Structures are given as C-alpha cells and as structure tokens.
Amino acid sequence: MTDWMPKIDVAYDRDLDLVADACVIGTGAGGAVLASELAEAGYSVIMLEKGGYHTRKAFNQQERDMMPLLFEEGGARTTKDGGISVLHGSTVGGSTTVNWAICFDPPEHVLAEWADAHGIAGITLADLQPSLAKVRRILNVQPIPPEAVPENGRLLLEGARKLGMRGGIFEHNRTQCLSSGFCILGCAYDRKQSMLVTYVPRAIHFGARLLPHAEARTFEREGDRITAVHGVLTNPETGAKHQVKVRAKVFSVSGGAISTPVLLKQNGLGNAHVGRNLTVHPTTAAVGVFDHDVKGYQGIHFTTYVSDLESEGILLESIFAYPGLLGSNLFRWGSGAIASMAQYERMAAAIVLLHDDGRGAVDVDKWGLPEIDYWVNGKDQDKFRKGLIALARIFLAAGAREVLVPHSEGLVIRGEADLGRIERMAIEPNRMAVFSAHQMGTAAMGSDPERSATDSWGRLHGMDNLFVCDGSLFPTSLGVNPQITIAAMGDRTARHLIQEAPRYF
Amino acid sequence: MSAGARLSRRHFLESTLALGAGWLAGTLTLSGCAPVHYPDRSLRFLTPKEWAALDAASTQLLPRLPGKLGAQDLSLATAADALFASANPRLQNDLKQLLNSLEDLTWLNLRFQPFTALAPADQKAYLSNWQHSPLGLQRQGFVAISKLCAMLFYMNPASWPQIGYPGPWIGRYDFGQGTDNQGDLAANPNPHVFERIAP
Questions:
Q1: For residue A262, what pLDDT is reported?
Q2: CB neighbours (10 Å) of residue A223?
Q3: Which of A346, A371, A241, A245 is nearest to A296 (CA)?
Q4: What is the rounded CA–CA span in Å between residue A203 and residue B193?
Q5: Rounded distance between C-alpha atoms, residue A6 and residue B69, angstroms
Q6: Is A243 helix (H, G, I), strand (E, B) or coil?
Q7: Element (H, E) at A219
Q8: Do A197 and B193 lie within an 8 Å CB cutoff?
Q9: Three-class SS of residue A251?
Q10: Which helix H or strand E contains A384, and what residues bound it?
Q11: Within 10 A of B96 (CB to CB), how many other CB atoms are there?
Q12: DSSP label at A61?
C-alpha cells in the first residue's frame, strides 16, 4: 500500500527554465482550482507555491510546530498598528489547508451588488451555478451531521433557541470526518477536503506541475503582455537557492488578498486600485464559562451559527481554539490569566464576524513584506458591540455562569446589568482581541478602470494576459466564509480562458 | 508568537530610546529591585539584556500560582529566543525594539530604573501602564509581549495538565496508520477528487 498523494519531483539543485501554457502563482482556493481546470482541459500548467508541500504525515497537531510551518509569519502577522491578527496559510493549499472547512455559497444580494454597483458581468448566482456545482462536488460539500455537533456548538444553538433567535448547522467540506478537531493545524487524516488533498492533486493528475518552495519575484513584460515570471526556488533540505523562470501565455497571481497586491506592486503592475479596498471580515469572540465540562477542544470546532443579525452584517459562529491561540487572545494577564485558563474545559466560545463596511490597504514595507493598514470603522464598531451583546445573552441563556469578553478591561458579563459595559467599552487597536481569517478586495473586479483593479474576469486592467484569481477580486466583503466563492471564481476564470482560448492560447 | 508590533515603522520609539538612554544611565539605582535572571545557556537571537527583560515581563504576565506552573517554570524567554532565531527580519527587528523599549523607556511612565531593576510590584504597575496607555504604541507593545508569552506558555505541553487539555490525538489513537499516523493511506476517502467532470 502506498500513500495516495501524488509524488512530485522538483530539481532543487539547479536553475530551472520552464515553459507552459499557463503559470499559476499560489495554490489556495482560487489558484488550485484555476490550475486544475486548465489542466483538465488539456493545457500545460505550472503552479508556483511559496510554501512547502506539507502533507498528512507532517501534521502533528501541535500549535508550536504547525503554526510556523503552515501560516504566514508563523501566525504572528498583524496589521501595522498591531490591532488585528491576520491569519492566512503559507503552504500548498494556501489557507484551505489551515481553515475550519466552513462552506457557504455566496449570498445572492452580495453578488447582485457586485453586478449592479461595480458593473461586473456574469456574476449572478445563476451565472455561478455551474462553477459552484463542480466545486461543491469535488470538495464534497455536505451538511455537518447533527450528531457531529459537539457541546460547544450545541450551546450556541440552545441559547439562541431560548431567545427565539434563528440558527443552523454549517455545511463543510469533510469526508468521513473523525472529529479530531485539529483542522487548522492541517488535517492529519486527509478528511478535510482542502485544496491540498483535492484540486492540487487533481491538477497534478491532469498533468499540471507543482513547484513548492518557489517564490515568484519579478515579471518580464513586453508591452501589455507578461512573457515570463522569475522566482527563487529554495531547497527545503539545504536552504540552497536557485532561480526559476517560467515562460507562459497566461499568468495568474493567486497568492491571496495580502500577498497578491504585494507582488503586483513590487513589479509596478496594475493601477492605483491594486492594494486598496482591503476588507477583512473583522472578527472578535466571547467565551462562555459553564458549570459543566464543555471540552470545546473536542470535535469539530466550527459547527453552528446564529443568523438573526446577518442582514445587519453580523454573523455569530461557534468556534473553539487550542490552548495557545485561546490563551493568547483572552486579553487577560497576571493571576487572572492563569485563573481564566484553568476553566478551559468548561469554556464554550463563539465569534462575531462582520461583513465589513470599512476599507483598508496593503502596501509594501522596507523589508519587502506586506504592510497592512486597517482598523475597524465606527459603523463596524457598533456591529461588534451589537454582536457581542447578542452573544453574551445567548451564552447566558444557555446556562453560562459568566461570559468573558476579550478586552483589556477584563470584561466579565454575568447578567443583563453588565451588558452596558460592552456598550461603553473602548474599541481601539490593542484594547480587544480582533482577528481576520478572511482577507479580500485588494485587486477588486469592476467594469471601470477608474474604480477597480481588474475587469469582470479578473484580468488586470491594462494587461492582456495577467489575471488575479483569489479573494482579492471581491469588490466588497462577502459576509460569510469565502472559500467556496473563491474556488468558484477559480472555476469561472478557467471557463473564461477556455471559452476565449484563441485570444489567450 | 504573536509579537506583531510594528514599531520599526514608527520613529517614535527610536527617537525616544536615544533620548532616554543617556539620561537613564545616570539615574540607575538598584535598591529594592527584583532579582534579574540571566539565561542559562547561550542565546541564538536575543541579547542577555533583551532576554532578561522578556524573562521579567513573562514572570509578571504569567505568574506562578499555588499548584500551577508559571512562565518561569517553562523558560519562556529562552523559548522566544529559539523561535525568533528563524523569524523574518521584520519580526526580529520588532521584538528587539520592543524589549529594549520595555527595558529602557521606563522614564516615559515616570519610573527611573530599567524595567528589570524595578521591584516586582513596580514591574507589574509599569506593564499595566503600557496596557492601558493612551499611546497606541505602548498598548501595541503590551499586547505583542503578552500574546507572545501566553502563546509560548500554552503551546508547551507542560502547561496542559493545569487546564485539562489532553493534547494531540497523534500518539494516542490509531486509525489504521499507526498511533504515530505515519502509515500510508491508500486513497483519499473523497471519491470525487480524480473524477473527470464534463463542463
């Protein structure tokens, strides 16, 4: 018996000069699908991935080893004022390798706004259906079985039900899940159907070539056409570096909404909208402390949601985290920190995720690294307050003895009388836990080059053959977990390229 | 781990650090100070001064309580030294600036000894000043250092018994690939991965 994952053979001991029909930079939800679809259609494809080809056997379920291995900056990336932790993957499969596997189709009203306000063609839910259907099949999207909802997720729904609020159980992309709960440290059992175990091996199966540890740096350009990309290939065993050059007819930058604008800006590609319009789904959390064991670390961490406030751009989702992530985001220290974490087994947690109104930007700093400028605007601060109050009420209704709000004032909510403290709390950088696992919008699509970075199909305005294919394309934030929409955009971009093949190939 | 301070892109700390260093040197007194600890082995990235500042801060942030481990028990400063030895240059630069600021800029909060020379109660009060500071950079520094310490502390398996976390499944359960999970898996359990699907 041999492991099923495709073996790859990369010559890390020499410079490489390669030729393909298409070169896709990045193997996350957008890039992997685009590469696979083009390969399936018979085109030669090379995938350049800055991160490593880390697979099941490398995933040891320990934060201290997996965070540095799988996340950008080891999970330590933040906005430039430190106010928001910015989590995204840096490994084959991108953020899908380290996400919680939640699946939402794109909300119809958001797509309508993209069409109406931004002039994007072919973006209605009906237009996207063929792409969504294929993506959902290959990722094996299905409802989480009710019996797989652990106590942590059940408590959110129970509290919501008692308050007359609407809730539900997510769809996810897992197959025969073992409910180990280690999804964001890489699934050690290949049950989470990330790009790492679906579209990337599928692309290789159909003939695409994967080069991990290959960081794209510069583009060769002739007029409005890109002719080649140059990168650095790092030997994962020795650290020795070589050059890699890929000549192709079509290029896609698919590094995610933080890395994509950095690469484009470093090369002077695109208009002034590249790097602008950043949205992040700002997220904060609250922790309910119960009198019984919840053992939130057991089972699937993200299972249930409350949608009453969705029309206001607020989604409440159950979540849990390993000790390092949870302990470092409680915003408690001294003896209070030790005492709070001593209740770890009796904690349930949930997040407040915002369909953000605010916008930020990504630039390049003196180190050549992303400088992320974003803070939650006034309108979104009000949403945080409203969401946290709803969450506190839900946990209290579910029987929580107290609710911990991760704020520097050490807020503890024990009843209705305490909720005013949330109303009054200062929402400023580094006064409360705010994080982002979804970055979007920094190469937004639109029909008008004066208002957007890319056209309706993700092609950079002013360029003939350079596409963006990741969450950067979203003109607004999505309001729900975005992996399915990003994957569908990859499929949609591939369909466009194949339909218009004489123009591109 | 989450030492995300972006102090390098602001001139504030660099200029105040330079301004304060000479002044501070003339005001050092060692009476009533906390014992300064030094690393028990050679450092890979931090200087002894930086290590000592982090060690002192971590002791205040995660103190040893009766029957519970604290930061000192897990040598968090030494763990940070190892972690940051391979971090990118921005993170390295930010951590060094942060620790040197913590140690030397006490005068900004009207304290006239380096952080490591303050009495434990004063160290605690000084950190609280940073936490609640109207200066965004001090709050940023506090959050960076407290998150780093908490992350290193709770990622360490030695801390898990006191919170009831049983740790990874690997090493405990066998799903056909051995308890170490290193055995081969014949196929992805998802049958659609290699299925050819007509457009």
A1: 98
A2: 8
A3: A346
A4: 10
A5: 45
A6: strand
A7: strand A214-222
A8: yes
A9: strand
A10: helix A378-397
A11: 17
A12: S
**CA B183 to CA B199: how far, in whole Å?**
37
Contact B70 A345 (CB under 8 A): no
Q: Answer yes or no: are the C-beta atoms of A192 and A174 closer than 8 Å.
A: yes
Neighbours of A378 (CB within 10 A): 10
Report CA Rg, chain B: 22
Res B5 pLDDT > 90? no
**Which residues from chain A sit within 8 angstroms of residue B5, using beta carbons?**
82
Q: What is the pLDDT of residues A418-459, one digit of tens each?
A: 999 999 999 999 999 999 999 999 999 999 999 999 999 999
A153-177: b or e for each residue (b if 16 or more CB lie within 10 Å)? bbbbbbbbeeeebebebbbbbbbeb
Q: How far is B113 from chain A (nearest CA, A)?
A: 22
Nearest CA in chain A to B60: A334
Residue A434's closest CA among A496, A377, A367, A370? Answer: A377
What pTM, to 2 d.p., does this model score?
A: 0.94
CA atoms of A248 and A223, how far apart (whole Å): 15
Residue B193 to residue A74, Cβ atoms within 8 A: no
Q: Which of B111, B101, B105 is nearest to B3 (CA)?
A: B101
Q: How far apart are CA A64 and CA B155, in angstroms?
A: 6
Residue with tokens 């208009």: A271
Q: Per-residue pLDDT tens for B77-92?
A: 999 999 999 999 999 9
Give the type of residue at B192: H
Residue A8, pLDDT above cutoff 70: yes
Cross-chain CB nearest to A76 (options B91, B146, B163): B91
CA-based torsion, A206, A211, A215, A220: positive or negative: negative
Torsion sign (Cα): A212, A440, A297, A337: positive
**What integer pLDDT is reported at residue A322 of this predicted model?**
95
